[in-house]
Structure formats: structure tokens, C-alpha cells
Write a sequence for this structure.
């Protein structure tokens, strides 16, 4: 899908864009002629994305938990690519462990990547958006913030924080033309989730039983929602959390 960069209408940053939902978001943006800067840690996945999507896909290898490097990273992107129109905070890590066994260090590690790094990157990108009076930020949450899931206490805390941050950011930044929204994916068919559910029939039955649409979503379903919230089609939408979950969060 090689495209000419002269076609680019906007510039977006997508974190954790090398695989799964992040990769689907990158693909959707590039289909819409948006130059997409993919920030990730896995060099091999980044190289595959570049090869698949062509010139509109720019990759940067950076560990966002290294907070001190974020201001220079955003400054470099601004210098090399001009204005940043869209930021998608997709990168995140998880830890599945009994509540009483989670250490302080493990809890903090999840919050560092899933919350603090999102805050720091958003802050630096917003500094470039404010003078333009325009911009769209889309954060990625999870069903873990919609209801209680066992054995993911740190992840749940982090995604609940993301939804609160989304509302606070939207209230403060929207008067300056910067919209901030959030997508909360349900159970999405990725390689990771397929393995987890197929190895746990009871969990899979529970997931399907409370999902009114009776099926898993696809990464493209989430990507379409992210694109909508970052586009002119959502120009009067800010501070929302949009579940893309086949009704799972309201199912019984």
C-alpha cells in the first residue's frame, strides 16, 4: 500500500502501532491519506509496518516509559514533519496476577507506561497544538474500566485513570480547539486474545454470553471508531468514552 507523501492531508502519531489494534489504526489512517508516525519498541514490527504501508508510514523506536526522552521526541517529530494534527495514545501493557501478589514495583510499572507516559506525551503534543488552535487526541481505554475484571488490578486502575484524564483534558483543552476523546474496546479478536480465550473455554463462554452481538470485534472496528473521533465528522464531540464492544458493557 505504497502512497505518495504529497497526498497526506494530516499528520498523526500512533503509539504502540506495530501490532494488533494499533496496527489497524495505522492502516486506517494511511488509507485516509494521513501521514502516520508510529512509535513502538519492537524494531521488527516497525519495519514490517513501514514495508506494508509505504511512505506515509514513518516509524520511531522509543520506549515511552523513558519519560525524560519524550519532550525531545515530540520536538523532533514537529521539526521533521511539521504540525501534529492527531495523537492516538494506544500503547499499553498488562499484568495478570492475583491482587494480593502484585508488588508495588509491578503496579507502578503499569501506571508508568499506561498513565504517566500518556500524560507526558499528550502534554508535549498539546504544546504544539495550542498555537494552531486545533487538534484531536484519542486515548484507548478498555472494558476493564467499565466493570470489575479479576487479576488485572493495575491495568484496571490505569484505564480508569485514562478515562478520567480524557474528561479533564477535554474540559480544559476544548476551548482551545483541541478535542479529546476515548475508545474503550471490548473483546477484540487479536492473536493475543484468541490464544487466551481458546485456552480458557469457561472465560470464552462468559465473554460471548454477555456480548449481545455474540461475536468478538476486529481491530478494524476499533480503528474505524478512532478515525471517526479524530475526523471532522466528530467536530462537535469531545470528552466522550465510546465503547466498541458489541454491547458487552451493557450485556447481562
Amino acid at each position: 500500500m505504497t502512497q505518495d507523501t504529497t497526498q497526506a492531508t494530516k499528520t498523526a502519531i500512533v503509539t504502540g502501532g506495530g501490532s494488533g489494534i494499533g496496527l489497524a489504526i495505522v492502516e486506517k489512517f494511511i488509507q485516509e491519506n494521513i501521514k502516520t508516525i508510529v512509535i513502538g519498541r519492537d524494531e521488527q514490527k516497525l519495519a514490517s509496518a513501514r514495508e506494508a504501508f509505504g511512505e506515509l508510514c514513518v516509524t520511531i523506536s522509543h520506549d515511552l516509559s523513558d519519560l525524560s526522552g519524550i519532550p525531545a521526541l515530540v520536538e523532533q517529530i514537529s521539526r521533521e514533519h511539521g504540525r501534529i494534527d492527531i495523537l492516538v495514545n494506544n500503547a499499553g501493557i498488562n499484568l495478570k496476577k492475583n491482587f494480593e501478589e502484585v508488588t508495588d514495583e509491578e503496579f507502578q510499572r503499569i501506571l508508568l507506561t499506561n498513565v504517566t507516559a500518556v500524560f507526558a506525551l499528550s502534554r508535549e503534543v498539546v504544546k504544539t497544538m495550542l498555537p494552531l488552535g486545533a487538534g484531536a487526541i484519542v486515548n484507548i481505554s478498555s472494558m476493564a474500566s467499565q466493570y470489575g475484571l479479576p487479576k488485572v488490578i493495575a491495568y484496571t486502575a490505569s484505564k480508569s485513570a485514562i478515562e478520567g484524564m480524557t474528561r479533564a483534558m477535554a474540559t480544559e483543552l476544548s476551548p482551545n480547539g483541541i478535542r479529546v476523546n476515548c475508545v474503550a474496546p471490548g473483546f477484540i479478536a487479536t492473536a493475543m486474545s484468541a490464544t487466551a480465550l481458546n485456552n480458557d473455554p469457561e472465560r470464552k463462554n462468559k465473554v460471548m454470553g454477555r456480548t449481545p452481538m455474540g461475536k468478538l470485534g476486529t481491530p478494524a472496528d476499533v480503528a474505524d471508531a478512532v478515525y471517526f473521533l479524530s475526523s471532522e465528522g466528530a467536530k462537535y464531540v469531545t470528552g466522550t468514552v465510546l465503547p466498541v464492544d458489541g454491547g458487552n458493557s451493557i450485556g447481562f
In short: The chain has one domain: 5-188+219-242. The two ends are 42 Å apart (CA to CA). Confidence is low (pLDDT under 50) at residues 1-5. The longest strand covers residues 178-185.
